[in-house]
Amino acid sequence: MIFSGFIFDIEGTLVDCVPHTLNSLQEALKMRGHAVSYETLQLCSGLDGDETLKLVTPSFKENERKQMLKDAGKYYEQTYLPLVRPFEGVRALFTAIKQAGGAIAFATDCKGAPLKVYRGSPASTTLSIISLAAMIFPRASPIPR
Fold this sequence. Notes:
Number of helices: 7
Shape: elongated
């Protein structure tokens, strides 16, 4: 093995949430009277939410952008979070890293309800990526809180 450790982001890397995130932002914008196409938002995928809003709604002031992101986050949690699933092959990837003697860690700005789901809250039907890693790597890096 060339590397002894691997650092993974969670959202968009281990779990397939990008389409849901974009749909949530699109819906929040629509509810405020701003029609922005999914394709336009997709071009901004990977940018910080505030940076995306600066591009697609340049007239929004900082407080409006913050509120828009809160609204989109609430919509995501209520509508899409239960639908989020890990990418195919995550278990096999973690197992291969373990078998090769590697370690894993997580680097994410994910927090709140999404992180609870990814950690495997009892109410979650989503495969817990972090719990899966903990099973395969009993002494994995500290789990983000």
